[in-house]
Amino acid sequence: MEDRQLLVVLGHPRPDSLCAALAEAYAEVARAAGAQVTRMDLGLLRFDPVLRSARAGDQALEPDLHQAQQAILAARHVAWVYPVWWGTMTALLKGFLDRVFVSGFAYRYRSGSALWDRLLQGRSAELLVTMDAPPWYYRWFDRMPGHWQMRRTVLEFCGFKPVRIASYGAVRSAPPQRIERWLADARQRGEQAGRRLVRRA
């Protein structure tokens, strides 16, 4: 793990999406701030998104997933950019997590115990999440199931800390000026992440 390594993961399947623009804005300024940035577009990877066996080793990783694991291990900070669909992450991102964040890589249960080791400690994360609902509605009425899932039951479970979250919505009705403000926010967050990595290096 190198101190300046920053990984940006795009969990939207379309390369022309708002999420893709947010990911690029974040990555561009983080690189300008001194971080060593790698971008990973999940829609371009070739892999079976279905975890077909719970036993480690039964389902070999495809080359793209092996490279993804190496990129995560090398990173000090990972930004995840994706939309909320049906209250949570895309099937593409969920399938990626099922295949990549496996026992022995992301976590390991202790023998004879309900406790576990967080194997991805020492890394921070940031979620840039778009949605058609207003963020206030997603927070107070839907109770943010996707945010809780990704932060608590995936990233923090595996050792990421802290995990910051930015919500952008409602996308469907957003005028161009609001979208530009979201892109500016992504740039600011990317710059801050890059500077934090440089200071720690």
TrEMBL record:
InterPro entries: Flavodoxin_fold, Flavoprotein-like_sf, NAD(P)H_dehydrogenase_qn
GO molecular function, one term: NAD(P)H dehydrogenase (quinone) activity
Keyword Cell inner membrane: no
Keyword Zinc belongs to the record: no
Sorted UniProt keywords: Oxidoreductase
Signal peptide annotation: none
A GO cellular component entry from the record: cytosol
Superkingdom assignment: Bacteria
Classification via SUPFAM superfamilies: Flavoproteins (SSF52218)
Domain Flavodoxin-like fold: 5-188
Family designation: Belongs to the NAD(P)H dehydrogenase (quinone) family.
Protein known as: Flavodoxin family protein
